[in-house]
Specification:
seven-stranded parallel sheet, 2 domains, 17% strand, pyruvate-formate lyase- activating enzyme, 37% helix, single chain, Rossmann fold, seven-stranded mixed sheet, globular, alpha/beta
Length: 505
């Protein structure tokens, strides 16, 4: 075999996410398009579909020596209290093997990475990372590498300080995007997060999007980034910014057309809440309708229960929407306030009424066990859901604590006061999976919810022998088999349709 030569025009991107059903790495797809526009050849190793991680990496590095390797960290764990599956140790194994194959720089990025970049860099023993948007930062990094220029003033770049010792969990700050960081041996340049995400059309050709449809049930598109809400637990503002940054509706529709050309006709809109801001959601739907795409594509989205109107719902259906997942968190007004949600259960009732009138399948996601939770609030939440009858109700019991959130401050105060409200691999910066469970419920949380839900198939909850449906999508054999048989769409809706068809049979 001839010796491989250095290639300063080639960049390798790696998706280490092996979770199934497969979820398309749209961030890598976007970054690949940006790198190609900057003149680089881009390769993608997608370990989601590799039969052997080592064989896939061996085959690539035996023939190529790319300028840099970008690795996405989409998830650090599965955010599920019962399993507490921590994904970073497996990613560390993959990165260690890459380091055996090449001395070229590794650059980390992705939404999971951006939530707590310093601890992840230290744990994975990597020197460089990108906080937030990678489409501008990654090309800037590799261009400077080619030119032999300094990297250290690039906005959004996180790098190990000269002479600093790394090591696992080197930082306890848990903060991002705030300028030079005093601890942990890393420096974080404040990111530049453009308000208008008017990147040229992403070709969406790096990832095998059709295979993701066939094995994961849908592709993905973003219509915006960032979140201006004040939920006490949510890491989205940490990863994507605290203001809405909108994509022009024309570019969203262009991208849908590009995916349709590949045969991808079911999509998930990857916004945290599609209807915020409201007028942008209306404009996106109107552009999809104007192009006649609503008859060609089916899509699902996360929404806030406010603002939600019959006008918007009708537009969404005309634009191809097949189902809505509302992140409502709770139904008791006291708990909604505790969780930082800006609405009451009256809004949930009205939202449900609109969906029922229009016959739109919809799901309410509950987040139970947070600060102040007790048997009274739990009983009310489950009873209220049964009364207003969403198509499905997802229950997450125990709230994953992320550094930099208000919930993290609450949990730290509880720990100092000796309150047993924190469960899991307790660590100072909540790096490994750690969950908040109200002191009033404690170990009773799961069995009490199970006693309320019983065998009601409308509830996705894996909390007891009485309950058959497991709400953890990761490695869900029933779900994967359904997708293999041709079911398409959001995972919750596939499971809903399976149950309804089973009753008819």
């Amino acid at each position: 075999m001839p010796p491989k030569s250095e290639d300063n025009s080639r960049v390798l991107l790696v998706n280490p996410n092996e979770m199934k059903p497969a979820v398309a790495p749209i961030g890598l797809d976007y970054v690949a398009s940006a790198l190609e526009r900057a003149g680089f050849t881009v390769d993608l190793i997608d370990l989601c579909f590799a039969t052997s991680c080592k064989e896939a990496l061996d085959a690539y590095f035996n023939g190529h020596d790319p300028l840099a390797i970008g690795v996405t960290v989409r998830n650090t764990d599965d955010c599920y209290y019962l399993s507490q599956a921590f994904i970073l140790p497996r990613i560390k194994e993959i990165l260690n093997y890459i380091k055996e194959k090449t001395s070229r720089p590794i650059i980390l990025g992705g939404v999971g990475f951006s939530v707590m970049p310093e601890p992840i860099l230290a744990y994975l023993e990597v020197d460089l990372g990108i906080w937030g948007d990678g489409e501008w930062v990654f090309p800037a990094i590799v261009k400077r590498m080619v030119a032999g220029e300094e990297l250290f003033n690039i906005p959004g770049l996180i790098y190990r300080k000269a002479g600093a010792e790394g090591g696992p969990l080197a930082s306890s700050s848990g903060q991002t995007g705030g300028g030079p960081l005093a601890s942990g041996g890393y420096h974080c340049n404040p990111p530049e997060l453009p308000e208008l995400l008017d990147l040229p059309l992403a070709r969406r050709e790096a990832a095998d999007n059709l295979r993701y449809l066939l094995e994961g049930g849908m592709g993905g598109v973003e219509t915006k980034r960032g979140c201006e809400q004040s939920c006490i637990y949510c890491a989205d503002p940490l990863a994507k910014g605290r203001r809405y940054r909108l994509r022009p509706p024309s570019l969203v529709a262009d991208e849908i057309e590009a995916l349709l050309a590949q045969g991808v006709d079911y999509l998930h809109l990857c916004d945290s809440e599609f209807n915020l801001p409201y007028n942008h959601a209306v404009a996106v739907c109107e552009e999809i309708i104007r192009r006649g795409l609503g008859e060609q594509v089916g899509w699902y989205a996360y929404l806030s229960p406010v603002p939600f109107t019959e006008e918007l719902a009708i537009l969404m259906v005309r634009a191809g929407c097949r189902g809505i997942n509302f992140g409502v968190d709770h139904a008791a007004d006291r708990m909604l306030k505790n969780l930082g949600r800006p609405f009451t259960n009256a809004a949930l009732r009205e939202t449900a009424a609109i969906c029922h009138r229009l016959k739109v399948p919809f799901m309410y996601d509950l987040l139970l066990g947070g600060p102040g939770e007790d048997k009274e609030s739990l009983t009310f939440a489950i009873s209220f859901m049964k009364e207003i009858e969403p198509s499905r109700v997802g229950i997450s019991a125990g709230v994953r604590i992320y550094p930099g959130t208000r919930l993290a401050k609450i949990a730290l105060a509880d720990i100092e006061q000796g309150n047993a409200n924190v469960r899991g691999s307790i660590n100072a910066n909540f790096f490994a999976p750690v969950f908040y469970v109200s002191q009033a419920m404690g170990d009773e949380l799961y069995p009490f919810i199970a006693s309320l839900v019983k065998r009601d198939e409308r509830f996705f909850f894996g909390g007891g022998e009485e309950v058959e449906a497991n709400y953890n999508y990761n490695a869900n054999d029933v779900l994967m088999e359904a997708i293999k048989r041709g079911y398409r769409g959001a995972f919750w809706d596939i499971l809903r349709r399976l149950a309804e068809e089973g009753r008819r049979d």
